[in-house]
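Cont'd.
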Amino acid sequence: MRIISILEAYSVFLALALLIQVNYVKGSNYSVSYDSRSMIINGQRKLLISASIHYPRSVPAMWPGLIQLAKEGGANVIESYVFWNGHELSPNNYYFEKRYDLVKFVKTVQQAGMYMILRIGPFVAAEWNFGGVPVWLHYVPGTVFRTDNEPWKYYMQKFTTYIVNLMKQEKLFASQGGPIILAQIENEYGYYEASYGDGGKRYAQWSAKMALSQDIGVPWIMCQQWDTPDHVINTCNGFYCDDFTPISAKSPKMWTEDWPGWFQTFGSTNPHRPVEDVAYAVARFFQKGGSVHNYYMYHGGTNFGRTAGGPFITTSYDYEAPIDEYGLARFPKWGHLKELHGAIMLCEKALLNGKKTNMTLGPMQEADVYTDSYGDCAAFLANMDNKTDSVVKFRNMTYHLPAWSVSILPDCKNVIYNSAKVGSQASVVDMVPEELQSSVLSPNRDLKPLQWEVFMETPGIWGEPDFNITGFVDHINTTKDTTDYLWVTTSFYLDSNDILLENNSRPVLAVKSKGHALHAFVNQQLQGSPSGNGTIFPFKAEIPISLKPGKNEIALLSMTVGLQTAGPQYEWIGAGLTSVEIKGLKNRTVDLTKFTWIYKIGLLGEHLNLYKGDGNEHWILVTEPPKRQPLTWYKALVDPPSGDEPIGLDMIHMRKGLAWLNGEEIGRYWPRKSSKHDACVDHCDYRGKFMPNKCSTGCGEPTQRWYHIPRSWFKPSGNVLVIFEEKGGDPTQIRFSKRKASGVCSLVSEDHPSVSVASWTNVNEPSAQKPAATLSCPASTRISSIKFASFGTPLGACGSFSKGDCHDPNTLSVVEKTCLNRRECSIKLTEENFNVGSCSSTVRRLAVEAVCG
Ligand code: GAL
């Protein structure tokens, strides 16, 4: 078998990137159509590799960099949903500023020379609050979401038309010379259609027709929809879509959501999808005739403010995507997929125009070969066995196929890529802590130590009550999601006999709630904080409490933690208290459920706009901020952290609440831990079908410790950091943390195939045949030292490499000579470079860890 080297991958890929650039000239219109093979753009069939980047999950200052990194990673399309509830704040009251500047985002995509898929929805799911639908619409009489009724259809059509008109005005559709080549209506409605009866069916058809009537000049898609009418393309979402066939024989095979990782809820573990499996799924999709593929997400980003859906979706929407939450390429995922995209693009002509032949190579092994009349030939060899490697014969040559892998042969002969052989570098990423620096100057213009100002909420009703009622009302119907918080309070009397309990036993407050979380105060003291979790939101709890003879005041702070995002009739799922009893008194239970309860929506601090840093007269300057004090607002004026690395706010010493910088909403923080008893793995076997709980880490650890603050939110000094802490934390321990790729690693074995478009042109020359370890430090840094280098049989992974039985003692000097003081370097696994006589019979590897500085 002939394997070509991976060495010049990047330079080659750059050349390739130019080739796959979109071929529209900005401003002049071009046609977009499709046939059963692919999208046809300006008369040419195209392979489309798309990257989801949701514009409000980052900030405008990050957009050009994110889009560029997606392009460098081999994508030629950017995809985003449109987030209705971020845009239509109340009926007819539209917002398109800052990170909701959709036009600016689409134009940034255009400037990068990429195409755009706009998934208008406007229902989107997306782990986004209320699935993207404005909460006010739930309260427009007669509205039922996502089925056949006038108010829903009226508002949905109105918003869709608004967005379409906005895009048209700005000439952003391909038919006008813009980047948008596809638009989506609805989202995965097929799953729920039946639950809405006949109305569901009518609504699905209406949605498609309404979309078509918008006359946008490019095709519409509907994902996971099995009854799309003519002219609307149905597409697939899932971890794998190679088996998918569109309903219409005239439509191409499209994969709108390939999940390269997964989202998290507060209190869950950290799911990982191995890149070998992502690459396998993508390669299988193209092997089986797919031609439009989108990573959901390519950059997940951040659920700023209260945009996270739920309940309990974390503020981070990192998604273990190829670009991490902070905007850095995630290695090796980004790199391995970049090489995959390069390999697939080399097959574009044959894949899109060739005749396909399927061949069985073994019980679980197959080849798909695409040949066209110009002599182009591309082959994909797959081993679907999830345990055993295989050696197969194809066109008189022998190929080794690792279990659960696909090899790509752009000339039907040379393996340029195998999905299970990761040659891309890995990286060591740290969160480097930095103390908060005060921005306050003393009279002699020295910086003063950090000064905290505080504002303490009193548990219970502030100001005038909103209303009194016997029993409980639904939390969401009451707040209408204008805030997470709702005070629900009452009081009752006891005489001393009631609380003369034996054996020191204590009375308990027994609460039942539909969700999502609660802080229970009795006589102003916090007694307990029960909550539901990401799978079961209703909760009940029995909280031991202290009571006194006479009047006892109960103040319950009921909370939502993000509204439901999807599901049949999801907008009717409520939240809030359903029962409260005092149990364990001497001779009786007091059922408070039937008492009169006094309600107050939101917190006083929210009412005073304290999060903007406003309300100077309310803040109190303290020498030492109170610690472990519930319901406390903290404010400090801080300088930006040094350097230019992305910033996370380390909230490990805080308990639960909200944070802002300069009035910008960082989001909910809650370093809630997952259970030690959850299923976590030390090593993830990429082989076999992936499920979100297959390869989790972080059991017993906080789901989210750091909270992204975009650099562009900082001013040169005097930044107002505001924290609202619900349970009581230690603000003196809050730190900024700089996200730094401090080191890069490469681990490449002698039998690694090489994706190198540069060497691809002279693929048959022997010099192109050796694999290489390639290292690349982040911009403006260089390789300052080599921490580890071993050619032979090194063990371990990036960050923990160790020497194996076999080791060439010259490795370090060879690597240092090639790499020190360079930003990038590449070391070929040749005999000139390395010599390991004793283990020449085994397949040897080169492992390197370099420090970037
Ligand atoms: C899909 C949905 C997306 C997102 C995804 C999971 O079902 O269409 O919006 O929620 O699941 O991240």
